[in-house]
Design brief:
homodimer; about 400 residues; alpha/beta; Peroxisomal Thiolase, Chain A, domain 1; nine-stranded mixed beta sheet; two-stranded antiparallel sheet; 11 strands; about 35% helix; globular
Chain lengths: ~400, ~400
């Protein structure tokens, strides 16, 4: 395989963009990423759109050709890639493969989701399409409900208090304050989190990633492309891996660990030839606080049942052992579902470029992002290194 | 890039499968393709699901993890790829890139669509998601209506009679009789076609590909994989290319040619290092008769305005100059939207393996399939060669 580099990255702030349509969000992020890369947009040969719900929320498919057309890129190869909440990461993975293959030299990715304009479906029903419609959704459960099962079992098995899990949200909100792209740039206290309305016992409102609109975009290229257009600063995609687990939570032998994360990680550290302890900055898929905590364990940063300790002891903050979600994570930066995996890579890039402002991790060179689809039915892992 | 081979292929018959769900169709085709490849299913490292409408017709996304789980493949990397009616071809393209990249050695593709069970949407509204929802669909036009514009302009510009275009359907139905996987295994006369009910002037019912359910599947592998598991018979994917055009028909400078096809073709003949005249057997995306005729021109088999002559003169039949849709094409084999691009490759493989029965093209070694999304918003081309 050929080496793959990221030379451009951009995003829209996440929020309720009532005046921007799905395509406008996507085109804005995409053209800004192309400008950030400093390339002629005619160099882009393929476009990968990561999106989960445009069919059910906007009545719109064929996003590849749609976004290409509106970005003035009609002609390029273009596709939509879907893997539920991991659609963004999956799109980056396909873009990575397409450059690694030697077929494409310069490829763009855009992750986009518009959740405020939900025409035929409501957002909760649409999100539930990530789980098994015939055997699970019909019971009336929601994604919050499924994650609540994981949460409840985690507390029972390891004798952990809700405060210890819920603290993950406090951390993310603290990190988001300095991030101009974040949906919620304000701190919340642990008291506020555990006293916020109950959504699905034990999950509280402030433990859930919000609904929002946004688009993030990357430009990837090959070494051959760089020979024609060399760079002073450069980030390499050291690893891009994906794995699945049994789709439905209730069919898994263990609720409190996500096999898909562990499988994707095993492949990723091998591909990148790194140790997990080498990572300077981490992005985890905290759609709910419990997923953030479990992921810290699945990635090997804590023993099982002890991921929450890293948060309690401040080890996830810049300067700590493993700075995590340093720009707010899903909880506070926001979680426009199919865009999230791309936002995670965008946030890593800000750290690796030294552009993370107040939350900068000093000397950050190696970053890892973990993106989940469903309750861990899919996991995508990316490892990036600043090479100069 | 590494060379890519197809070692397994299978499909379900296309029809109204009231007793088989989306996942059952997909799993049936997938496991049969794995058996056809003669491999242990644990060798499969990634799964690409080509599908357009599961979100709007079944309320189900996350098909990668869903199909992987139900096929007993949970753990593999798995994704849904969408490019409207070219979703199947797009999934094959991603699978091709993933093997070419060197990351995956053995990959499965399944194209699947279930159009008879349409829960939240009707099929016509769902298909219209391939066009621009905000600027085109709201006018009330349908896909038949858009293709009717192409048809009308083609007849006007080139002084062609409807009979000459409509004959494409007669050909496809004749070819389907011998295909046990075809939805309509019966001949229709030209009189029946041009006197069938008018759908969108001038398009008649029997000029439209039908609505149906089906799944087709392929197993692709690398040369490294073949070293461990050598084969007496082998088909290579010589080229896999994709291109887009301006999404909406009314914004294009010329209605009667599909730029996406021409762009994908240009890349494909270069990648495969062939001349278009070398092709022994052809699959074209005849969602409507007019698209079959225009495609024969866009691929260079006829001058513009004269594609219909190849049909009239019998050149598209086995034994003719360019045997086309020899197992029935979209019109009579069927068109389960997101599966179609995979069915086309499946049909080519039957010819290249010498398993096309009565319609066998003697000595067929080189095949080309063209898959369209929307009215040519996307085009995917695959070129396959029997190498032994």
């Amino acid at each position: 395989m050929r080496k793959v580099y990221v030379i451009g990255a951009a995003a829209t702030p996440i929020g309720e963009h009532w005046k921007l349509s799905l395509r406008e969000l996507a085109v804005r992020a995409l053209l800004t990423a192309i400008r950030d890369a400093g390339i002629d947009k005619r160099d882009v040969e393929a476009l990968y759109v990561g999106n989960m719900s445009s069919g059910s929320l906007q009545g719109q498919e064929h996003l590849g050709a749609l976004v290409a057309t509106w970005a003035g890129l009609a002609g390029v190869a273009a596709f939509k890639v879907e893997a539920a909440c991991a659609s963004g990461g999956a799109a980056v993975h396909q873009a990575f493969l397409s450059v690694a293959s030697g077929i494409y030299d310069c490829v763009a990715v855009v992750g986009v989701e518009k959740m405020t304009d939900a025409i035929p479906f409501d957002v909760t029903a649409s999100l539930m399409m990530a789980e098994d419609q015939e055997y699970v959704a019909f019971t009336g459960t929601t994604f919050v409900g499924l994650n609540a099962m994981v949460y409840r079992e985690y507390m029972r098995r390891y004798g952990v208090e809700q405060e210890d899990v819920a603290r993950f949200a406090v951390h993310c909100h603290k990190m988001a304050v300095a991030n101009p792209y974040a949906q919620f740039r304000r701190e919340v206290s642990l008291e506020e989190v555990v006293n916020s309305p109950l959504i699905a016992d034990p999950i509280r409102l402030l433990e859930c990633a919000p609904v929002g609109d946004g688009a993030a975009s990357l430009v990837l290229c090959s070494e051959d492309y760089l020979k024609r257009d060399p760079r002073d600063e450069l980030i390499e995609v050291l690893a891009s891996t994906a794995a699945t687990d049994i789709l439905s939570v209730h069919e898994r032998p263990d609720l409190t660990t996500l096999n898909a994360t562990r499988r994707a990680l095993e492949k990723a550290v091998k591909q990148a030839k790194i140790e997990i302890g080498d990572v300077d900055v981490l992005e985890v898929h905290d759609a709910f606080t419990i997923l953030g905590v479990v992921t810290l364990e699945d990635l090997g940063y804590a023993k099982r049942g002890e991921g929450w300790r890293l948060v309690k002891e401040g080890e996830v903050e810049p300067g700590g052992r493993i700075p995590t979600n340093t720009l707010g994570g899903l909880k506070a930066r926001g979680h426009p579902v199919g865009a999230t995996g791309v936002y995670q890579v965008f946030d890593l890039i800000k750290q690796l470029r030294g552009e993370a402002g107040e939350n900068q991790v000093e000397g950050a060179e190696l970053g890892l992002a973990q993106n989940l689809g469903g309750v861990g039915g899919t996991a995508i892992i990316h490892i990036l290194r600043r090479v100069r």
